[in-house]
Amino acid sequence: MCGRYTLSDGQDNAEIQEIIAAVNRRYPDQPIRTGEIFPTNTAPVLIQNGTVTEPEPLVWGFPKYQGSGVIINARAETAEEKKTFRDSLYRRRCMIPSTGFYEWDADKRKYLFRLPGEQTLYMAGIYREYEGFRRYVILTTAANASMKGIHDRMPVILPRDKLQMWMCDTDEAIRYLHAEMPELVRSN
Predict the structure, then answer these.
(1) How far apart are CA 2 and CA 47, in angstroms?
(2) CA separation for the pair 160, 33 (Å, rounded)
(3) Which one is catalytic: 103, 131, 168, 183?
(4) What is the pLDDT of residues 26-67, one digit of tens each?
(5) Active site residue 94
(6) Which among 2, 54, 80, 168 is annotated as catalytic?
(7) Is there a catalytic annotation at residue 172?
(8) Where are the alpha helices (DSSP H) in the chain?
């Protein structure tokens, strides 16, 4: 599961700074959250507009059809079968830029997970429109060795060499949902 992530706009991460600046230029009246991102926050997400991948402000979480609350994650193993996610998986994939994601162990200790040697971590997502607002969920998969012992789920991680494929090649993107995720490093 992925219930929180971070989007630090520190001066040492030019890539994240540019994504945030691009959203602020294009959508000056749409405030976005940086720092620790919680469900229902509006945050920068990369979507495909024609042949160009651009950041836009989207709200984290699909509204639940019954009752209150939001759905923040979709299981990669079943997203293709679920009516709530299927069409988005085929037509509206997105990438969620972050500087890491958080997970808690059984003793409620909070850990930050990142890609080794990278300042930016991209998570695979899907989006759709609800009542005039684009909203996204993060795709999750079974935890790999770097996550085991902390949690049994983790986001689908998109290394740099998979970014273009995720956005542009549906068949490969579907196959990638079942791939082994890259190893991560953690800190608390």
Answers:
(1) 20
(2) 24
(3) 103
(4) 999 999 999 999 999 999 999 998 889 999 999 999 999 877
(5) no
(6) 2
(7) no
(8) 14-26, 83-91, 163-168, 170-176
